[in-house]
Design a protein that fits this description.
Layout lengths: L3 E11 L4 E7 L10 E7 L5 E7 L9 E6 L7 H5 L6 E5 L16 E7 L4 H9 L8 E8 L8 H11 L3 E7 L8 E2 L2 H6 L2 H6 L8 E6 L2 H14 L13 E4 L3
Parallel strand pairs: 7-8, 7-11, 8-9, 9-10, 11-12
Antiparallel strand pairs: 1-2, 1-6, 2-5, 3-4, 3-6
Cofactor: FAD
Organism: Buchnera aphidicola (Muscaphis stroyani)
Protein name: Flavodoxin/ferredoxin--NADP reductase
């Protein structure tokens, strides 16, 4: 049983016309960093319009933070974008998912790949810092279309200082150039080795574990590349592997 409960909107950060963050207050159950929840609003027939979103905040934070991409024809995201402070929405009491460090085998290097708003679960994991000591290096790769979509870059820079050399961050843009970001798609930048060269670390099944979250095409293409060219396999509870995927889309 996972009931719907009410959440109050404390703040809305509208980063662009398509990306925004909700800061909420609700009496949810405890969750693990990397898990997701569901938000909902009721339509005129009192039927809930719902969608899954990952937590951005660490589990011990007082407020809930959700990072959302607004879909032009989306039934829910458009309504959420125009909410006002003090509005009430529905949220699931209990969290979902296994995209958590407890499910990740020990490895020397943990690679976190995200596109767009899928940076959320990594922000939660890295802010909590629980079990991150298991990895000698953690590499966070965030891909977006444009520079103004790297909305959590300030947080990422703060985390760099906190992790004191353990964490590396690389941003990628697909639609414009920047001297700080690589240009292209994640699978392409893996295939031509420019991503590994820029980071200064190599991906291989002996020392690396890969986490994938975001656009289904990125996940599919990156997974296929790693499977074919790096001889990696999907991580399952019954059969530990090298690639852990979040796919609640």
């Amino acid at each position: 049983m996972n009931p719907w409960i009410k959440a109050t909107v404390l703040e809305i950060n509208r980063w662009t016309e398509n990306l925004f963050s909700l800061i909420l207050r609700a009496s949810i159950s405890s969750f693990k960093a990397g898990q997701f929840t569901k938000l909902a609003l009721q339509d005129f027939n009192k039927k809930k319009i719902q969608r899954a979103y990952s937590y951005v905040n660490a589990p011990n934070d007082t407020n809930i933070e959700i990072y959302i991409r607004r879909i032009s024809n989306g039934n829910l995201s458009n309504q959420l974008y125009y909410l006002k402070n003090g509005s009430e929405i529905f949220i699931k009491k209990n969290a979902y998912g296994f995209f958590v460090l407890d499910e990740i085998p020990d490895s020397e290097i943990l690679w976190m790949f995200a596109t767009g708003a899928a940076i959320g679960p990594y922000c939660s994991i890295l802010q909590e810092r629980k079990n991150t000591h298991r990895f000698k290096k953690i590499v966070l790769v965030h891909a977006a279309k444009y520079q103004n979509e790297l909305n959590y870059l300030p947080l990422m820079k703060k985390l760099l200082k906190i992790y004191d050399g353990q964490l590396k961050i690389q941003t990628i843009l697909s639609q414009e150039e920047s001297k700080y970001s690589l240009v292209g798609r994640i699978p392409f930048l893996l295939s031509n080795k420019s991503l590994e060269k820029k980071i200064g670390l190599n991906i291989n099944k002996k020392n690396s574990h890969i986490m994938l979250c975001g656009n289904p095409n990125m996940i599919k293409d990156t997974y296929n590349f790693l499977k074919t060219h790096k001889n990696m396999k999907k991580n399952l509870r019954r059969a530990p592997g090298h690639i852990t995927v979040e796919s609640y889309w």
